[in-house]
Amino acid sequence: MAKNNAPEVKSEQKVQTKYDRKMEARRQQKLKDAQQEKIMKTIGITLSVVVVLAIVISIAVPIIKKESALKGTYVKVGEHELTQLEYDYYYNVAVNNYLSAYASILPYMGLDTSLDYADQQYTDNKTWKDLFDEMTVEQIRQSKALLDDAAKNGFTYDVSADYESFVSELEAAAQAAGVSAAEYYKTNFGTYATKKNVEAFVKEGLTANAYHEDLLAQNAPSDEEIKSYYEENKQSYDKVDYRSFNFNTEIAEDASEEDIQKAMDELKVKADAMVQARKSGGDFEELCLKNASENTKENYENPDTEYSLSEGRNYSNISAVMSEWLYDEGRKAGDITVLEDETYHQYYVVEFVKRYYDEADNANISDTLAGQRVSEYINGLAENYQVTDVKGNLKYLTISTDETTSESESETDAQTETDSDSENNDSENSGTEE
């Protein structure tokens, strides 16, 4: 066998010394440290980005919210797309008008204007915010319907003078309130309101009002229609003059029915005696002075006044105890009677003087008839304006109609309170015997 003459290659393994191992360990540590540093830099950059984004978002949210309020569609009424800015304008006007109209009876209605309206119930299933939203949307529907109808019929109106008056009055009101005009705009028309960005809404409102007045003039009733309406509603427009005096007494809260009846019987005797004295020729005012309590006598001591005489009073402004008797169709001058007020445990002596119609009320009847016709016309227009809750904030739209039958109870109850106050005022004006 032939020999392989190729040289033999021997692999030679280098032996690592202690020094070599130490240097290798250092190299590996440097690589590890470099990798860790790279990771930490990456994390640091990421954290910095997160912080910056958080700051940007905190700044951007109110900016975006404002931008949305100024430009985004908040609600659609008919073909009109309203921003939140415009909706807030109408909302604040509606609320302010409502609060002004019912200022004297708000305490009876259970509304606290210092609290969020959304947290206060108007009815069992509707908050005050819901009520105000509903009122606002209805006002928008009617306003847009009027403006569209005005344009359709070629109605034009120069609002320049009216707008200047509006601005002047607003600035004067702001000064009187001790705030800037800019702040006054926000307080009265919404968070994002400024003089510039609500100007168009104000001018639209002025135009709508002018067109409304034009419609009223077009729908004014004839003299015959006014007379016919009066004949059908005499009680609402006739006025009466009458004299009255009331006899009352202090009755303990824990008084028995027997004690109350005894006190009432005693008052009745005095009231009947006054009537008989009057029928016998006695002067009504002098009889009032004779029967008045010590703290009310001074009301009847001035010979130049007749404290017991009420003049030009309407049916609705007279205590229910007296109104029916006074407005009886058969009533004639000089009729006198005693009327019992069971609620307040008192008796009235009432003498009828006269009932009459003031022809100045023809203008009021004309306004009423024209107003009814125009309201019917506007409501017919507004029915065609469908409401689309784009942002989903009009919760009243989701409340079932069947569940809102008691909606007006708050006003009714409050009005009952004021009617009671009116009866008390009649007592105070009539005089008192104790």
UniProtKB/TrEMBL annotation:
The keyword Glycoprotein does not apply. Residues 9-22 have a biased composition (Basic and acidic residues). InterPro entries: Trigger_fact/SurA_dom_sf. One of its GO terms (molecular function) is isomerase activity. Coiled coil: none annotated. Keywords: Isomerase, Membrane, Transmembrane, Transmembrane helix. This is Peptidyl-prolyl cis-trans isomerase.
